[in-house]
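Team,

Forwarding the record for the chain on the shared tracking sheet. I've put the sequence and predicted structure together so nobody has to dig through attachments.
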Amino acid sequence: MTALPYLDAGAVTRLLAPAAAVEALAEVLRAGLDPETCPPRSAVPVPAGELLLMPAAAGGWAGVKIAGVAPGNAALGLPRITGSYLLLDGATLRPRALLDGAALTALRTPAVSALAVRHLTSGERPSRVVVFGSGPQAYGHVDALLAVRKLASVTVVARDPARAEGLAAYARGVGVPEARTGTADEVAEADLVVCCTTARSPLFDGGRVAPGTVVVAVGSHEPDARETDTALVRRSEVWVEARAAALREAGDLLIPEAEGAIGPGHVTGTLADLVRGPALPAPGPAPRLFKSVGMAWQDLAVAVAVHRAAIG
């Protein structure tokens, strides 16, 4: 029996650049994939945290990610997200490759954000960015944003000053003209705010976000956790990957709805709407919020792209 090819974290990162991951997502949406029909994520509590099962099938391929979320790993110097991705032939369901699941997640989540940012911002001038968080997702978002937009500055807001400075130094090293640590109040001067943390309550005052600013929130997929506050959600255009997924898992939206601050129709549109057009008008008097919970079709699209790059 032929051994199943294994693409480790280094291979996943080396084989597919952020720009290519963004295009892989856009291509499957342009081809007609409907994220609303994507199977929901299964979450199983375990002593160390949570196991997530994320299956999908599309375009002649199928696959499933088994991910572990282990909050205690940080104290051990280990990644919080673990797991593997099994890529299958769609017609026969025979295994084709096994990929490092954490690396795949670290690539696809920023690519989803960057795809949304490409459509929600004009790109007329370099963006001033505030990034909340200093983990792998924060690094991935700097890389992915640089693939779709010029960045004038990156301000890092994180609990650990040393880790925050480490991300700022990384941003300077990859070509951001100005990158430093800062505070949450600096969202008032930002063109783009990116939230990629493990926070369960709002990170900043949404009333300080300027009209036309784009806010991306990716840190939570739980209905009782959020990174943005009710004030921001109430005054924003809200964009999501899929309405069904957002209404199941997006605490950023479900908590304001439970408070009576917004209704179920508050969502403006989806990522598929953005990709398929028509193009949005220039930013108006409202901020634009993109809330991402992460979906299995995204893992599949990026895993297929990595596999194709591996086999040439």
